[in-house]
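haha ok so turns out i had the wrong file open the whole time. this is the CORRECT one, sorry everyone. sequence first:
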Amino acid sequence: MKYWINVVSRDHVVDGVAQGITQANHGKPWALRKMDEGDWLIFYSPKTKMQEGEPLQAFTAIGQIIDTEPFQVIVSPTFEPWRRKVRFEDTQEAPIRPLIEDLAFIENKKQWGYRFRLGVIEIGKADFELIKAAMSYNKNH
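then structure:
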């Protein structure tokens, strides 16, 4: 089992949760092909919307891959993205800033945003558990 972060604007995360799917790197298949059924996926949203969104810098969803390989869909004549099916957990958003110092996958704490430029990042289980705990509802919810 592997653990991944997928960098996606919040508006696209919301759409993906509603559909039970994920895309990566603007619909390209290469990162999705690295994922296996049962792998966990955390969504990090730098902005609220892909175009002209406000800064957000938060983890926005967690899910588990539930299919065996990527599939392609036709959205329009010029856009045929690859997707994976995901079962999403019931979580709340968590800002990244309070977690930066404790996240091992972020080596350079001063330029932490640089780590997210690849779009999809494999992380360790300890980082996954730390983020998941931050996104879990407290008992008063």
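The chain has three helices and eight strands.
again sry for the mixup
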